[in-house]
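ok trying this again, last paste got cut off
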Amino acid sequence: MENLLETLRVAGFPPSVALDMLYSVSGFVVGHVATFSRAGDGRHIAAPDQTRSLNDIDPDEFPLLAEAARASRAPGSRSRFDFALDAMLSGFEAARTARTPR
């Protein structure tokens, strides 16, 4: 952990912010892994198709949700995990540059 904190300090993050970043990313990754882990007997638990359960949404009652479910991206290299991780990292960078005195 010390090496990671040093790397982030050199990149311009104060140690307290760097520690928060490490815990945030670690928690996100561990949560994702726990959600899509293996059953106790070794069987793989398939990732739930989150949009499949939305197929029966009434578009008259929930037009935005129905539209979003129809347009939802398929899992792959730009999965929701990738999207969320990119958003976190972009936010960390924005916070770092906002702290930089001009």
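PB: full thing came through this time. Residues 15-35 form the longest helix (21 residues).
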